Amino acid sequence: MVRNLEYPKRAQNTVKRYDSRGTYDCGAIHQIINTTPVLHVAFPPGGDEPFAALLPMIGVMGSFDYPSADISEPLDCYLHGYVSARLMRLARDSEKGLPVTIAATKVDGLVLSLTPNSHSMNYRSAVLQGYAKPVEKVDEKLWAMEKITNKVIPDRWANTRVPPDGAEMSSTMILRVTIETASGKIRQGEPHDEAKDEKRPEITGSVWTGVVPVYEAYGEPIPSKGNQVEQLPTYINSYVARATEGNRTKALDAAKEP
Amino acid sequence: MVRNLEYPKRAQNTVKRYDSRGTYDCGAIHQIINTTPVLHVAFPPGGDEPFAALLPMIGVMGSFDYPSADISEPLDCYLHGYVSARLMRLARDSEKGLPVTIAATKVDGLVLSLTPNSHSMNYRSAVLQGYAKPVEKVDEKLWAMEKITNKVIPDRWANTRVPPDGAEMSSTMILRVTIETASGKIRQGEPHDEAKDEKRPEITGSVWTGVVPVYEAYGEPIPSKGNQVEQLPTYINSYVARATEGNRTKALDAAKEP
């Protein structure tokens, strides 16, 4: 299997500031998208509108043609969520698809240094640029819906009432984004100060420096009033514990110097 | 004091899908921005570029002219972060400012229902549309830098080496966004299924339904190798505990029917 594939560097995706934090590695970028619960999707305003459109959406990387593709191989991004009439019309009407920009950002820690200017965050962020088209084929749409549901809780799809009926299939809109370029940015490690501050004892003696780890935690699942399954299923229980612990470990690891 | 001010509804900010979740309340929208660690900022592509630009940035609501203004009063959004050369040039060169769209999304829970189509998330999201100009006045810039630093950890500014020196002031770029329109969207409560599924015992008897609370947690602060302040200061310690507990409570409250 081919590993360490990289996205091509072009004007729109080349990381300029702090470029040593930049990455073009497909696997690293896809992983950030797949572990971020909500993505932000931007597209150019149409007509006289001055403001770019920007929507929170749910999405996942995958390849319908090569469903066994590894996370580090070329993948499309499948989006679901508030697909506005405008977004659908623009995506449907354009032959190549609607140009969209997709961002995912995870905060791993607050980096507290001697002076505000060198404060930072530990984070992992990814930005994709690609062309979005509505998924029309029923089998691809079903496949993407399953993938998106299982991104929220692994195995959830098979543990619900499936398959969706005709009305559900036609009311659900999925966009497939063919990625053109992408980049990631990762900051990890300790605060870094300048010598001008580090050699002044009245500063180092009074300003606490370090990292506050930040991570997404899952609480004890709360059954709904109508729930009739008394025992919380293992696939939910174990995922909730595993995800919280995994996120916590990632935040602690990110605080260490790379 | 005037309360419950609302943003005007215009084409670009009117919530269409699930419009009962929409809000135009200034206080609610500003609060979402102020409690989201990383914002996403989009602006239209210049020239031949097909893709909207989209950047993670740090930002906070505030009024330099009326610094005591309440969260529910008209405020500007001050942005700091990776201000690209392009973003700065566009913001500086346009008389009205660069049209930017700013989004903040907080996930409060995973909402698990009988069928994938009615799955949802509890969330609070806000989108602002406004015009960005670089802050040129030194006193306004200093004021905004303090506000942005204290958004990360309250009182952090006064507990670091301040004020920034000349080199630090000129290397820091702050954008002031004059908000034109805005909207928020809030989903809370239990899963909601359709009668067609709720009345089938083979479904209700096998699918667990409920809410998995999700919240941002802060871990034990980790001192840097160079840190010389032995005792973790109270303003950090108490904030970390308070913020985690506050976020957790919000996620639990969001799981209740409104």
Automatic annotation (TrEMBL), chains A, B:
It comes from the Eukaryota. Pfam families: Pyridox_ox_2. InterPro entries: Pyridox_Oxase-rel, Split_barrel_FMN-bd. Gene3D superfamilies: Electron Transport, Fmn-binding Protein, Chain A. This is Flavin-nucleotide-binding protein. It comes from Cyphellophora europaea (strain CBS 101466).
